[in-house]
Amino acid sequence: MKYSKATNYALHTMMHMMAASPDKPIGVQSLSEAQRVSPTYLSKILTKLVKAGLIESASGANGGYRLKGRYEDISFLDIIHAVEGTASLFDCCGSVNSECLIHQEMLSAEAAMEEKLRNTRIIDLAKRLEHSHRHG
Amino acid sequence: MKYSKATNYALHTMMHMMAASPDKPIGVQSLSEAQRVSPTYLSKILTKLVKAGLIESASGANGGYRLKGRYEDISFLDIIHAVEGTASLFDCCGSVNSECLIHQEMLSAEAAMEEKLRNTRIIDLAKRLEHSHRHG
DNA sequence: TTAATTACAGACTTCACATATCCATGATAG
DNA sequence: CTATCATGGATATGTGAAGTCTGTAATTAA
Ligand code: SF4
Ligand code: SF4
After folding, report:
1. Where are the alpha helices (DSSP H) in chain A?
2. Does strand D come within 7 Å of the CB of B41?
3. Is A113:B110 a contact under the CB 8 Å cutoff?
4. Which of A54, A93, B31, B100 has the fewest C-beta atoms lying within 10 Å of its C-beta?
5. d(CA B86, nearest CA chain A) in Å
6. Is residue B7 within 8 Å of B76, Cβ to Cβ?
7. Reported pTM
8. What is the pLDDT of residues B72-81, one digit of tens each?
9. Chain B residue at shortest CA distance from A16
């Protein structure tokens, strides 16, 4: 029961892109160096963000990844859902039983967490701090 | 990023014990039959609950597992912590950086879920419904 | 047109952990 | 003493996370 490291990488990358210039694409090479993760692996993760419509990519020289459209609205939950999927944390027996009290409680608790994550936008944190360090 | 099946078993078992008589110990044999899980495996899970002080066990004939003390106060979170552990869902780089905004937000969101789980007691749900079915 | 650069997709490996199973041991009631 | 019951350790087994490798496609610069 842990968030994957991929989610961590995605959050850091998005934070970094928000703090940097949103105009020019940034190659996965430079994005990976700040986080000590291999470029090919980070690329896999960022492709998920592309498919989720959160960012856009450009092949070829001077290509890379770039924010698009209404990037100010992107929340923590958007990124987490793009990377981890949207399935419930509590999948008992596959079927959703709306009458089950255990099930209801677990979904309700998860919803409380998602509510918090949905109401926090990356851009707000990026504004509050030029956050580029990565300790370890 | 899923709750383990062990947590599911523990929740069902506790719900069952609350609905049944709290006086007599119930053997893991009968507890397991209701959930279609092997007795030995369920025993391992229940031992965690014993060590967490949520229930008590009695060896020998007519032994088994039984609620103890202030069992009315047991919350969802108590059981989940006993089974899954109390570590944070978001463990980046091991160290807790209180100044990191990403870290703060993730902890805050997790706290919202735990708050909900802490404020829901098993006994309340057991009262509302004699809940012993297990579909699959 | 060619070469360099970049993202993308698939196969693959490795590793950690969840999910058990089996068996020996210990405790306890009758 | 014996049947019953929990506990602990060792041991599979399966699944998903984490990461690597390599070829392919797209795009730009020369
Ligand atoms: S009884 Fe409720 S919690 Fe248990 S498996 Fe069914 S729906 Fe899920
Ligand atoms: S989220 Fe913050 S504390 Fe955690 S690794 Fe990233 S920068 Fe460090």
Report:
1. 5-19, 28-33, 39-51, 76-84, 101-118, 122-128
2. no
3. yes
4. A93
5. 10
6. no
7. 0.93
8. 999 999 999 9
9. B102
